[in-house]
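Course assignment 3, question 2. Fill in each field.
Student: A.L.
Task: Predict the tertiary structure for the chain below.
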Amino acid sequence: MKARSTMESIFRGAVYRIVLLAVLFIFIFPFIYMVLGAFKNTVDIVNPEKLFSFKPTMRNFISLFERYRFAGPLKNSLIISGSATLLSLIVGLPASYSIACYRIRSLQSISLLVRVIPTIAFLVPVYLMFSKLGMVGTYRGIILTHMLIGVPFTVWVMIPYFQNIPKELRESALIDGASQYKVFGEIMIPLSVPAIMTVSVLTFINSWNNFMFGMILGNARTRVLPTLIFNFLSHAEINYAGLMAGASLVTLPVIIISICLQKYVVQGLTAGAVKG
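Answer field:
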């Protein structure tokens, strides 16, 4: 009986590992295919026999910077994503702290509602409004539209985190004569670093990958990387080699940030889910 139980345990473990590897392969293979394709020419990309056996080339990456002027959209994406993330934190952190501190459930519901509404629903009214204000094709216009997503997300994530910090800490500081601003800046913010890092990373990634607002509200001067990648697709042809190389470079910063800050992201996402 004991031997049979051991065999069943080994069998279940083997099946679990096989299924896990299969699922992992399904998710990772497209990324591997993209990276490998970045070092191939178009002929090798469409040839199944050249999947792993091919002569690597850097021509695709050189063409990105020389022919497609990759440096300009890269700078624009860094400016817009970084600014949208920073401004979302500046607006969202005090708002979420106030909602959590004073239990303003109506504003909490509004922040959740804004999160639920599809982003595309804001596109037409925002475009009409920005057209009248002369903000189409400007950095500030695109940054503000990215904040439509970043600020509600910041508020939505940070409210439960602030609520889980013992209220005795805030009350003790207030009794000792500290102002609400001092409590927020010197107590709440340092205690919320994991959650703030989580919000920063996810907001930056969302802004970095945003295609719709950059396509509609941007122009040649404010073009961002997702819209540049779109230029590899045309009615006449699809530049697979350039598309793979561009997509690899666009993905690279996100991967680096995620790997470097994954510890904080995990802490931030789990801490807000545990009632302290």
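Instructor remarks: The domain at 64-271 is CATH 1.10.3720.10 (MetI-like fold). The chain has a mean pLDDT of 85.
Grade: pending
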